[in-house]
Specification:
51% helix; 308 residues; flat; mainly alpha; two-stranded parallel ribbon
Length: 308
């Protein structure tokens, strides 16, 4: 059950109307990295772990609900940025003087140009926030990512929070309204908080790498192929030990020669790792059995009735 509290989570304020920034801010209302995308992604992901991982389910639902509140903050801010303009748009009986409202003829002409590039926002909806990005592309469920495996979903969510944080950071460059900046900084900061929550939840699931259940082939998991010409660089991604599995990186300086010498990698041998094909298959079976047991235990009917 959702309960709407008629107050914003953060007291969003605006100093003055700003039609152009209102349009830009739509990116976080109905864009691919916006608040609705985040809310729906975490909401949908939560269904799959209600019984098997009730703690993560609780977190996902809490954050999804908070994202809906952020959508409300963004929508309210967009509406405030259009203060006055909405009134003129609705002044249908008399000639609407958008020129005065928009500080002169050049501003009005710019407004007309903006209306032509995003008619749904400025003409069809009359200035009401629409579920589109800043150029009018409609929101799509294809933005939502979920794999049905928590170790994968939480990593996807960390990426989603990263993208949203960067969009807010970039939006802050396009307004000088201190009150709007105050709201954007709050929203950006909550992305940082959620990033850490998802990261902590991921670390609470062990083992959690690689994502999913099946383990990687030990012949190829620590190979680095030098696939480009020119100056070569070394770093922790191709020398020393791999960060997650602690295997020794194997740097293949000449991939073509290596592929030819190993019969198209079919004769490749595992090097720099203690893992073997036998140990991999053993771990595949143990993790599969563990995840199956968790799922089966979470879903049995009680007296023939399934209850959420």
């Amino acid at each position: 059950m959702f309960h709407h509290v008629k107050e914003l989570q953060f007291n969003a304020r605006v100093s003055k109307p700003d039609v152009r920034f209102a349009k830009l801010l739509l990116e976080q209302f109905g864009g691919p990295n916006g608040e609705l995308k985040a809310a729906m992604q975490y909401f949908v992901q939560a269904f799959g772990c209600r019984k098997s991982n009730p703690d993560v389910y609780d977190m996902l639902m809490d954050i999804a609900t908070e994202e809906f509140s952020h959508l409300e903050i963004v929508g309210a801010t967009v509406q405030m940025l259009l203060t006055g303009v909405n009134g003129e748009l609705k002044n249908a009986a008399d000639e609407s003087d958008l020129t005065k409202m928009l500080d002169g003829k050049p501003a009005k002409e710019n407004y007309i140009h903006e209306a032509m590039t995003n008619p749904h926002f400025f003409v069809v909806s009359g200035g009401t926030p629409t579920l589109t990005d800043s150029v009018g592309n409609p929101w799509s469920a294809t933005y939502i990512m979920g794999m049905g495996d928590l170790t994968a979903d939480l990593r996807l969510n960390i990426g989603a929070e990263t993208s949203a944080k960067m969009v807010y950071q970039n939006l802050m460059k396009f307004t000088d309204d201190p009150l709007v900046l105050e709201s954007l900084r709050f929203l950006m900061t909550r992305e940082v908080a959620h990033f850490q929550m998802f990261e902590a939840a991921l670390n609470s699931i062990q083992p959690n790498f690689p994502p999913g259940i099946l383990q990687s082939d030990p012949r190829f998991s620590n190979k680095y192929f030098n696939m480009s010409n020119g100056k070569d660089f070394k770093g922790p991604w191709n020398e020393g030990k791999s960060p997650e599995m602690g295997e020794d990186w194997q740097y293949i300086a000449s991939p073509l020669e290596h592929v030819q010498q190993t019969n198209g990698l079919l004769d490749e041998k595992a090097k720099g790792t203690e893992r073997t094909e036998k140990s991999v298959q053993k771990k595949n079976k143990s993790i599969s059995a563990k995840r199956k047991a968790e799922a089966d235990k979470a879903a049995p009917p009680e007296k023939g009735v399934m209850s959420w």
